[in-house]
Write a structure and sequence with these properties.
266 residues, alpha+beta, Bactericidal permeability-increasing protein, domain 1, eight-stranded antiparallel beta sheet, two-stranded parallel ribbon, 10 strands, 23% helix, elongated
């Protein structure tokens, strides 16, 4: 069924306290980072390998960067959704205090740097993702009237996504940074999805089970409608994280022989 997206609003706030770091940047390059030769023949592979380390080595945060928080689990304070797509989906929903697990297991399949403008294009695969938290919802889903609040959890498998980073070089002393200007995300594919929503009908377990079965049997249709919300939420989460990392970790720790901002912009 093809559904028209009539209205879509959301509000996302991460549970990261705004604190000051003890220094302006990471003072020393970590031993696991091997700077890629900017002019080297294997630059793209090396760049993708270093990009992978943002997920695997720094899943608990970056040393000294107190405002970042962990990647696994990733904490999301609130997501608010208001959407009217006719009979298929017409809801006002709010997810609170969500914890998402396994983001650190993301596999970077490709990461390239456009040397003409320092924009990054990356494709990632996530074998599995699990999230849990609280919800409130009221409206209609697949013709079913719902009104409830309680716990929910979801599982997704074989997720493939793409994101595009626009950056701007900045010199600070002898170091050069690559500050985030914008980030766009696209969910390319999800292989499987399962959701369990509790207390959807005030404790009526039979109705609750029927509703969850309906959601899970038709998850592809619901995902197709909700994907703009999910992608924009993903953009905010990733932009917050990468902005903090790129402003704190010099780009020269990732790339050697790269141009200075003063040289690049003339």
């Amino acid at each position: 069924m093809r559904a028209n997206l009539c209205s879509l609003t959301f509000l996302l706030a991460l549970t990261l306290q705004i604190t000051y770091t003890t220094s302006k940047h990471l003072a020393e390059r970590p031993s696991f980072l091997n700077p890629c030769d900017y002019n080297g023949a294997n630059f793209d592979k090396c760049f993708a390998d270093n990009f992978q380390l943002l997920f695997s080595h720094w899943h608990d945060g970056v040393p000294g960067l107190k405002s970042l928080g962990s990647l696994d689990p990733l904490s999301i304070k609130r997501i608010k959704i208001q959407q009217d797509s006719g009979a298929t989906l017409n809801i006002v929903a709010e997810l609170e205090n969500m914890l998402a697990y396994n983001a650190s297991k993301a596999i970077v399949k490709k990461a390239t740097l456009d040397k003409s403008n320092f924009e990054v294009d990356a494709t990632l695969e996530l074998p599995a993702l699990y999230a849990e938290g609280n919800y409130k919802v009221k409206g209609t889903v697949l013709g079913l009237n719902i009104n409830g609040a309680g716990k929910c959890n979801l599982e997704a498998a074989r997720i493939r996504l793409n994101f595009h980073l626009a950056t701007k070089l900045r010199d600070e002393g002898d170091l050069t940074f690559s500050d985030i200007v914008s980030l766009k995300a696209k969910i390319l594919e999800i292989g499987d999805f399962h959701i369990d929503v509790q207390n959807l009908f005030g404790g009526q377990r039979d109705l609750e089970a029927t509703a969850n079965d309906l959601f899970n049997q038709n998850w592809r249709e619901l995902f197709g409608i909700l994907s703009p919300t999910l992608e924009q939420t993903l953009e905010l989460v990733l932009k917050d994280r990468f902005t903090k990392i790129y402003a704190y970790v010099p780009a020269t720790y990732f790339i050697s022989n790269m141009p200075r901002a003063s040289e690049f912009y003339g």
